Amino acid sequence: MALAPDCLRNGAGAGAIAAAAREFSARSSCRAIGIQTRQRRLRLIANATIDRSAGDIARDAPAPGKIKIDPQILQPVDGFPALPRTFSITIHGVTLEEELERLKQDIKGVAGVIDVCWIGELVQGGPRGGYVTVQLELQSDATLRSVTSAIQALDSSKLLVLPYKNNSWKWRDYKINFGVAGCGNPIILVHGFGGNAGHFGNLLSYLAENNKVYAIDLLGFGDSEKPKQADYSPDLWAELVCDFAQEFTENGAVLVGNSIGSLSALTAAVKGGKNTVRGLVLLNCAGAMNRKGLTQDGFLLQLLSPVFVGVEYILAQPRFANLLFNRFRSKDNIRKILTQQAYCNKESVTDQLVDILYHPSTDEGAVDVFVKVFTGNNPGSRPEKLMSEVEIPVLVLWGDRDAWTPANGPVAKFFVDLEKKRNDVKFYALEGVGHCPHDDRPEIAAEYIRSFLSSLNW
After folding, report:
1. Is residue 343 in a domain?
2. What is the pLDDT of residue 57?
3. Of the candidates 382, 449, 396, which has an alpha carbon nearest to the alpha carbon of residue 424?
4. Are residues 225 and 258 in the same domain?
5. How many CB atoms lie within 10 A of CB 280?
6. One domain, residues 231 and 147
7. Which domain does 77 fall in, by range?
8. Which residues have CB under 8 Å from 196's CB, separation 6+?
9. Phi, psi at residue 249, to the nearest 5°?
10. Which residues of the chain have a pLDDT value below 50?
């Protein structure tokens, strides 16, 4: 059985650990490793086993108290290597039951994989027609990033591998989808317009090595519900993020947002306060949700304002809105936007990424979300106003090749100036990176974020 040292080191509830152990035992076929050192460690924690991705299990279990484990117990001793770890991942592109056994054997041959502990039920749907959840036991020196990349390479034309387990949660009677992986201090990833949890897959695979990472589908996006009557805005999404943090974390989380997701995360920090949001990472932060909040962003945008008004008029006509949306969401157009505008590293624009972004647009209600975001009357508060109310550490990363929120634009300049006035704000321009640093160059973004996380007093 595989332990999750980070979970224990951070004081997971005893009841949660026991519940996770029961769940793991019920569905796991992983072999126990019977070396003396491992047995001694297992006895010290009452044989508790927990999956580094079992956030939903741990949350639902009773937690009457906390246990504290001496970190020395979790370190290699007597010459034995560190304990293996378990992660749950989602593999899209599996559509037939008979494919599961072959997939299992193929994964067992991947470097760094000790065993395939279990494969969940085959679910029809998703961006590649069907998917399964797979729990892996990894060698101590294998990374989640390297293993998921190797599994993806088994059949890159068919498979789409995401480094987390999918879960759902009810919020105001709406289904909210999220992914979770890892153990440790919690991080919540908040995507931008047209994005979803899968857009953060590459960054998550780095951060989940040392943290418990949640990637959430905001209301109206991804696999979350898309109600037509919702008033989509950064304020609404901030309330969702705050409630999510209060539901799934004990002492708050660090929020990492991109574009409009940054604006929503920043708004959540103001609404939730220090006990809910412990720190902020803003990736190419948007100034507002739509043109109604961008009137102060310079002469050019003011000059283009009549164009935006014309687009809003067209979107108000359902027939034309559908035509425009269908053209906007086509796979060819998504790839064109990514390669020509959003990304600098063209190798990051894969078929998998295009499918991740395309699939949610086929859901009922997706066109209504598209229209409401572009035409909504609540574009959100400006970052300049919000930052005056934020009293937590903030890391700002900005791709210097961003065509949408440029590094020499008003929002980026505001943060550059703010860094000179506040010790708790750090700004870094990332050379040769576009609008989505977390996916354009995830390895670079991850290094800055890890350094920031290590500086926090959690």
Report:
1. no
2. 39
3. 396
4. yes
5. 25
6. no
7. 1-82
8. 217, 221, 222, 223, 356, 357, 360
9. -125, 150
10. 1-51, 54-80, 293, 298-301, 303-304
